[in-house]
Amino acid sequence: MIINENDKVQENPVELEGAKDVTVKILIGAEEGSKDIIMRYFRIMPGGHSCLHSHNYEHLVTIERGKGVVMDDNRNERVVTTGHSLFVEPNEVHQFKNPFPEPFEFLCIIPNKEL
Asked: Is residue 14 one of the residues assigned to a domain?
């Protein structure tokens, strides 16, 4: 069994085109021996956002701290907050935004394999 201390995991900026003021920590992934899934922790600072994107795999998101806005495939925007969980389907266009004054933080779990 591998146990990581989340506060000690390196936090890196997300350097994708269209992303602004977003960081990510890989809490559990290939380095820990996970062959099937990756658990990531994102932080979006006030005024920041992920890029508008889609990918060919599903992923699960649970909001850990603060609140933010999620845009879905139809460009509808909804406020999500601590205690909400989301299922993003494969190929669904989506984006996470933080128009609020506090950091917006969430776990995101994705497959760890080439698709």
From this structure: yes
User: What pLDDT is recorded for position 115?
Assistant: 47
Helix, strand or coil, per DSSP, at residue 8: helix
Distances (CA, A) of 57 to 9, 23, 104, 111, 115: 25, 21, 23, 7, 7
pTM of the predicted model as reported, rounded to 2 decimal places: 0.94
Residue 28 lies in a domain: yes
107 in a structural domain: yes
Residue 32 within a domain: yes
CA atoms within 13 A of residue 92's CA, in its CB half-sphere: 19
Secondary structure element (H or E) that encloses residue 12, with its range: strand 12-13
Predicted confidence (pLDDT) per residue in 54-97, tens digit: 999 999 999 999 999 999 989 999 999 999 999 999 999 999 99
Domain range for 17: 10-40+102-115
